[in-house]
Amino acid sequence: MTEPTGAAEFSGKKVLISGGLGFIGSTLAHRLAAHGARLTLVDSLVPEYGGNLFNIAGIEDHVRVNISDVRDEHSLRFLVQGEDYLFNLAGQTSHLDSMRDPFTDLEINCHAQLSILETCRKYNPAIQVVFASTRQMYGKPDYLPVNEKHLLRPVDVNGINKMAGEWYHILYNNVYGIRACALRLSNTYGPRMRVKDARQTFLGVWLRLVAQGQPFEVWEGHQLRDFTYVEDAVDALVQCALSEKAAGQIYNLGGERPYSLYEVAQLLKEVNGGGNFTVKTFPPEAKRIDIGDYYCDWGLLHKAVGWEPRVHLREGLARTLDYYRKNLALYL
Ligand SMILES: NC(=O)c1ccc[n+]([C@@H]2O[C@H](COP(=O)([O-])OP(=O)(O)OC[C@H]3O[C@@H](n4cnc5c(N)ncnc54)[C@H](O)[C@@H]3O)[C@@H](O)[C@H]2O)c1
Hints:
Blueprint lengths: L13 E5 L4 H12 L3 E5 L20 E4 L6 H8 L4 E4 L6 H6 L1 H22 L4 E7 L22 H20 L3 E6 L1 E3 L12 H10 L4 E4 L4 E2 L1 E3 H13 L7 E3 L6 E2 H12 L4 E4 L3 H4 L11 H7 L7 H15 L5
Parallel strand pairs: 1-2, 1-4, 2-3, 4-5, 5-6, 6-11, 7-10, 8-13
Antiparallel strand pairs: 9-12
The site of nicotinamide-adenine-dinucleotide has 32 residues, from helix 1, helix 4, strand 5 and strand 7.
C-alpha cells in the first residue's frame, strides 16, 4: 500500500492526539510514529470507551502517553503548549449511551471541546487542529448521497453535542484564527476497533462473533451504509492537517460505495469462509434513533486534498478479521 503524500512532513513535528489510545487515534499514532513525529497521546481509558493500551503495541517507545481526561482543563493547559498539531479525537461514541446518560455526552463532546479550544486560544494559538466529527448530526437523510449542505437534524443527544463540538472548532478558526477543520466520519472499521460491544458500531460485535465462530444478528438488513477502512480515515486526517485549504472547512468522509447491511453480513461470511447470521427486527430503543439509509458524497474532500478510499470493504473486512483472529483476547 502506498502512503498518501505528506505523512513524511510530520517528521520532527510535535503532535498531540486526544483519544490517542482509541481505535482511530492509535492507528493515526502508528502512521505518524513511522514518519518520525514526536507524539503525545492523551486518553482517559474509561472502560466503556475504545481506549486500549494494546493499541500502541510496537510504538510504546515512540510515544508519550498521558492518562488524563480532556474534561480536565489543567491537564490540557499543560498538554497543548508547544504542540504543532492537535488531532482531536477523544469522544463518547455511543448513540444509545448518549440517550441513557446525556450529561456525560454533553461534558465530553460539547463542554470539553470548547474548553480545549479555549486552552489553545490562550496557550497555543499557532496550533493546527483536526476534529473527528460524525455523520450522525445529519439525522435521517432527506436525500442521498448526503453532501455537506444537507440540513443538520440530529436524532440523538450524541449528534447534537458532536455538532456543537464541530462548530466550536469552525468558530475558533474563523474568529480567532486557530486553524481547525472537521471530518464527518461515517462507519469506520478496522484493526483496533472496539469489538466488546456495539458502542462504536454494530460491525464490531459482528466481527467478534464471527471470530469466535458464533452466529450474529442483523437488524432488518436493507439499510444502506458507507464504510471507511481505518487507514483511509487516517489518510484523510493527515491530508487535512497538511492542507492550507482545509482550515475552517467541514468534509464528509465515506466509502467506495453504499452497501446494505445484509450485503455486509454476506461479505463477512464469505471472507471468513463460513458463518451464520439471523435477520431480526430492531429493538425499540435502537429503532427510535435509527437514521435509516445513509451514504455520503465525499467529493468536496476529494477536490480539496485528493482523498479517496483505497481499501474496499471486502479487503478491509478480511484484514480486520485476521487481526482479531490473532488478538481477540486483548479486546474482550
Ligand atoms: N468509529 C467510528 O465509526 C466513528 C464515526 C464517527 C465519528 N467518530 C469519532 O471519531 C473519534 C474517535 O473515535 P473511535 O472510533 O476511535 O472511538 P474510540 O472510543 O476507540 O476512541 C475514543 C478515545 O477517546 C477516549 N476518551 C473518551 N472520552 C475521553 C475523555 N473525556 N478524555 C480523554 N480521553 C477520552 C477513549 O478512552 C477512547 O480511547 C470520536 O470522537 C468519534 O466520535 C468515530
